[in-house]
Amino acid sequence: MILHLYFARKTLMALATVAGILCTIALMIEMIEQIRIFGPAELSLGTLFYLSVLRIPYTLYKIFPIVMVISTLVLFLGLARSSELVVTRAAGRSAMRALKAPLLVAFLMGVLVVAVLNPLVSATSRKFDQLKTEYLEEKSQIFSVSDEGLWLRQGDENGQIVVRASQSNLDGSTLFDVTFLGFSIDGAPEFRLEAGSARLEPGVWKIKNAKRWPLAEGGNPEALSETLDEFDLPTTLTLDEIHDTFSTPSAVPIWEIPSFINRLEKAGFSARSYKMWLQSELALPLTLVAMMLIGAGFTMRHTRFGNTASLVVTALLLAFAFFFLRNFASILGENGEIPIVLAAWAPPVAVILAALALLLHLEDG
After folding, report:
1. What is the pLDDT of residues 276-292, one digit of tens each?
2. Which of the listed residues 86, 209, 271, 344 has the most CB atoms within 10 Å of its CB?
């Protein structure tokens, strides 16, 4: 038990060291990137630093499998140089038994990353996007899906228009049972428009079977209302913007994804990318275990046998290959080429089995 606790502590120390170094490097890179992005806004150094810090959780989250494999290499190379693995084997502990504590730490770290870091990434990413829109004075465009349907908001120098629709088609180009609320630049309501359908075309909403109530002229809006068979309403929204917004599942905390998927499908959108993202996140603990096994398979040997550098490079190459295989499988799953569950869970399970076979062959075979 004491030996397992010792290996677990060494694993955590290696993880903290590698994550700290990579976060420091990422912070410096982000500072340069924010200076490039926000150069016209002439922000202070403190504000740029704050914006860079907001991006660090996202960066760490994306590269955490790589952090795990590098930490594994640091851990077992250190244990091999100090001959601690030799002493462990001499005490009757096999390589597989010595791996129990590090693998448990990797699995629990994956659970912690998904449960805690994932919501943190969502919160910091939304805050960064909000500040970016504010500092660069970009057009304010917000998209959301609720139990009442789909909500869009577009804004420019002339004011804002809020759009609510009960449903849409799969690509979001046509909205059904739609309401448009127009506001002036100072927030005063200008008009309300309800329609059976509205199709988004370049620069305009093509609206059919509509009724329009003017709200800025005073008097009785119902008396001044008009019925329109067809009506063109200018818009700054594009179909690509809608697609980009609903194709970023990382902006939604993992605890909210199941209900968000339900609302998205109810609104008429395809939620396949969100389902793929959810399964990939649930499989992250196994992914980290697979990364650790890849690193352990090439470094749980004494350095006196030589070829350490070659084995480290091989482990890193295989880890990157697995990283890209996982992402490629996710793309196939999002596009419907393979089942989502297979795309999310097959790569880590396959790598775990292959790495265990390698370890059994090299260490106990």
Report:
1. 888 999 999 999 999 99
2. 344
What distance in Å separates the CA atoms of residue 211 and residue 227, rounded to the nearest whole number? 4
d(CA 243, CA 141): 13
CA–CA dist 340, 276 (Å, integer): 6
Give yes or no for a contact between 297 and 316, defined as CB atoms under 8 angstroms apart.
no
Q: Which residues of the chain have pLDDT under 50?
A: 365
Render 82-143 in DSSP notation, one character per residue.
TTHHHHHHHTT--HHHHTHHHHHHHHHHHHHIIIIIHHHHHHHHHHHHHHHHHHHT----EE
Q: Specify the DSSP class assigned to residue 337.
A: S
Closest CA to 109 of 350, 297, 284: 284
Pairing mode, if any, of strands 226-234 and 159-168?
Answer: unpaired
Contact yes or no for 64/288 (Cβ under 8 A): yes
Distance of CA 306 to the CA centre of its chain: 40
Distance CA 221, CA 218 (A): 7
**Following CA atoms 16, 22, 24, 28 in sequence, which dihedral angle do they give, to the nearest 10 degrees?**
-170
Rounded-to-integer distance, Cα 343 and Cα 122, Å:
23
Six-digit token string for 275: 């389902």
Q: Could you read off the pLDDT of 63-111 as tens digits, one per residue?
A: 899 999 999 988 888 877 777 776 776 666 666 777 888 899 999 999 9
Provide, for the chain, the percentages of residues in helix, strand and coil under a 3-state DSSP scheme, each rounded to the nearest 5.
65, 20, 20
Q: Where are the domains of the chain?
A: 2-136+270-363, 142-236
Hey, what amino acid is at 48? L
Q: What own/partner pairs with CB < 8 Å and gap ≥ 24 does 189-192 have? A: 189/215, 189/216, 190/159, 190/214, 190/215, 190/216, 191/215, 191/216, 192/221
DSSP summary character for residue 238: -
Task: Name residue, tokens 């506001």.
Answer: 183
- What the block records as the tokens of 39 is 């150069």
> What is the distance of C-alpha 280 from the center of its chain?
10
What are all long-range contacts of 317-323, with beta carbons under 8 Å and residues at least 24 apart?
Answer: 318/294, 319/65, 319/66, 319/69, 319/291, 319/294, 319/295, 320/66, 322/290, 322/291, 322/294, 322/347, 322/351, 323/65, 323/66
